[in-house]
Specification:
Elements (H helix, E strand, L loop, with lengths): L20 E4 L5 E6 L44 H15 L10 H12 L9 H20 L1 H14 L5 E6 L5 H18 L9 E6 L2 H6 L11 H4 L8 H4 L3 E6 L13 H8 L11 H9 L8 E6 L19 H27 L2 E8 L19 E5 L1 H6 L25 H5 L21 H23 L7 E5 L3 H12 E5 L5 E5 L25 H6 L4 H13 L2 E5 L3
Parallel strand pairs: 3-7, 3-8, 4-5, 4-6, 6-7, 9-12
Antiparallel strand pairs: 1-2, 10-11
Helix pairs in contact: 1-3, 2-3, 3-5
């Protein structure tokens, strides 16, 4: 019997160079064959096959790239040949004896440590070490041995980021970008401290995130934090830890680049003060914005920037201003994305102009141009140099296999509706966050969504029973990802139960529709230990019924299997 990818996808150790991968056919489907080489970088995501295939000529391939909305006349750039070439160079370099690495002694010490140190706790994954190795090879080795590759990266940046030199490291969600950031900071800092005359390294770092929640999570990158990765995860040899205290690191979110009003003045007062002298200048200058945002970095030159979730940072093409081909909500979303991206990259350009930026390291699972940017949606940033994809992460056992509901009795046409669920329910789901969602009924979820939930729950229930019979103490985890906070609350209530407000001021109890996930007993009393928790931006900000359980539940997600139903557009 041929191996089954969906039943047992893991082929490689997470700590070793991947040596095998599942073969995919022309449609992006696993064939059941295992190839005894590492998977090359390709932009293909396997999905369950449609039940029917009609209207297709014999031999005609339908390659599913997981990218919606592309047309043949859009400009599309594929950097995967460059990524594969860099990977071959790094593989060959990794196998050389140390005296041929062509790196500083400090860098060599770190590389040896990451590869062979007997870690007591979290040992770095191969993909994390490879990402750091790639950045090191490009800076310390490639300028002497692969000048054409460096010229290519400079040209790619000149076209899209003329004031910056960016390097994108693509790692699947869950593969540990934070550890890679810590490795990059350690490499740069230790070299900069021990080689103060060198301009090749920096001990100043600006880490930019898309939001406050992510920024707070990255505090482990601060050397003086009690849980810092350099010491707690043994990423730096003990005798080198004192050098890390000399790093200057600023964590911020890109919103800080927006210049603020220095004085709150009413319109009437402003007109009075302006008089005949023209407009009153109350907006921060660039220098004042940088002083507020960068703080202790202001005395340094040529700092290193680390962009987390870097796909939000780009400069849209001029023709994207009109969001060509988009209408309604899609056009508004594209406009919002482009404005945010412009603020982010303009802020970095200001830093580069005033202080100097050594390198921008972009880390993201999806370093793609967004819809409406003027580039083909889903096109990889052309400065991407390393790729550890979701398929790679699944085959190495680092992340769990997302499960698509295949018990589909809602099919119409060639394709099961539940394969691309959002296409069929998007218009029926709330378009705004919870605050603007109004009074919505959790029991009126679209039929297709309810079917998908029940289909996945049926599989979960069988797994739950099987694990209990095998005396596995920790249950499997079921994760549902929604498009906004209004949808997440609706699905949460549908799954776990809720009390409905009545017109007379009273309430009526509605039990959760998925029995194992109910948070209430039959009388409507809350259980002492909730089985389901809601984690979204509004819940995080309120802290209500979350802080006590979030760490425990997230620990289960990292440690055990999970069912995932994505409702994202």
């Amino acid at each position: 019997m041929a191996p089954d990818f969906f039943a047992d996808p893991i082929l490689n150790s997470p700590y070793e160079h991947p040596s095998r991968h599942w073969e995919l056919d022309e449609d992006g489907q696993p064939t059941g064959n295992i190839l005894e080489v590492r998977r090359p970088c390709r932009l293909i995501t396997p999905v369950p096959q449609p039940k029917k295939k009609k209207g297709r000529k014999k031999g005609q391939a339908e390659l599913d790239l997981g990218v919606a909305g592309l047309t043949h006349d859009e400009q599309q750039y594929d950097p995967t040949p460059i990524i594969n070439e860099i990977r071959r160079h790094v593989d060959k370099w990794r196998g050389l004896p140390e005296d041929q690495w062509s790196v500083t002694p400090e860098t060599a010490r770190l590389l040896e440590h990451w590869r062979h140190h007997p870690f007591q706790g979290h040992r770095p994954f191969f993909c994390q070490v490879e990402a750091a190795e790639t950045a090191i090879w490009l800076q310390e080795v490639a300028p002497k041995r692969a000048k054409k590759l460096i010229a290519h990266l400079k040209a790619a940046n000149e076209n899209a980021n003329p004031a910056l030199f960016r390097i994108a490291l693509k790692l699947a969600t869950g593969a540990g970008k934070t550890t890679v950031m810590a490795m990059l900071i350690a490499w740069q800092t230790i070299n900069a401290v021990r080689r103060p005359a060198s301009k090749a390294f920096s001990r100043g770092f600006l880490i930019v995130t898309p939001g406050i929640t992510i920024r707070d999570r990255l505090r482990v990158l601060l050397p003086n934090d009690a849980e810092n990765y350099y010491e707690q995860r043994e990423l730096v040899p003990r005798d080198m830890l004192p050098e890390m205290q000399k790093a200057r690191i600023v964590l911020t979110n890109y919103h800080a680049f927006r210049r603020r009003e220095r004085a709150q003045i009413s319109k009437g007062s402003r007109r009075l003060l302006e008089g005949r002298d023209g407009e009153l200048a109350t907006l921060e200058t660039e220098g004042q914005m940088l002083q507020r945002t960068l703080g202790e970095l202001m005395g340094l030159k040529n700092i290193v920037v680390v962009n987390d979730e870097a796909h939000h940072c780009y400069r849209a093409k001029a023709e994207a201003e009109n969001a060509k081909g988009l209408k309604g909500e899609e056009k508004e979303e594209a406009k919002k994305n482009n404005e945010a991206a412009r603020l982010w990259i303009t802020g970095l350009e200001t830093v580069a102009r005033r202080l100097g930026v050594h390198t921008v390291f972009d880390l993201s699972a999806t370093p793609f141009f967004l819809r409406g940017s003027g580039y083909a949606e889903g096109t990889l940033f052309p400065w991407t140099v390393c790729d550890f994809s979701l398929m790679d992460a699944i085959e190495c056992g680092i992340v769990k296999l997302p499960r698509v509901p295949v018990a589909d009795n809602t099919q119409s046409g060639d394709m099961p509706k539940l394969r691309n669920l959002w296409e069929h329910i998007g218009k029926q789901m709330p378009k705004k966050g919870r605050a603007k969602g109004g009074e919505l009924d959790p029991l009126n979820l679209p039929n297709e969504l309810q079917t998908a939930l029940f289909a996945l729950y049926d599989h979960y229930e069988k797994t739950f029973v099987s694990w209990r019979e095998q005396k596995i103490p920790v249950p499997p985890v079921f994760i549902i990802v929604c498009n906004n906070t209004a949808s997440s609350k609706l699905v949460y209530d549908f799954v776990s139960g809720f009390h409905r407000k009545l017109p007379d001021g009273g309430t009526s109890f509605e039990q959760g529709r998925l029995a194992l996930f109910r948070n209430f007993d039959e009388a409507g009393n809350a259980l002492a230990y909730p089985r389901t928790i809601l984690i979204d931006s509004e819940q995080l900000e309120s802290g209500e019924a979350l802080a006590m359980w979030a760490g425990q539940v997230l620990g289960l997600v990292r440690g055990e299997t999970a069912e995932i139903l994505a409702l994202r557009g």
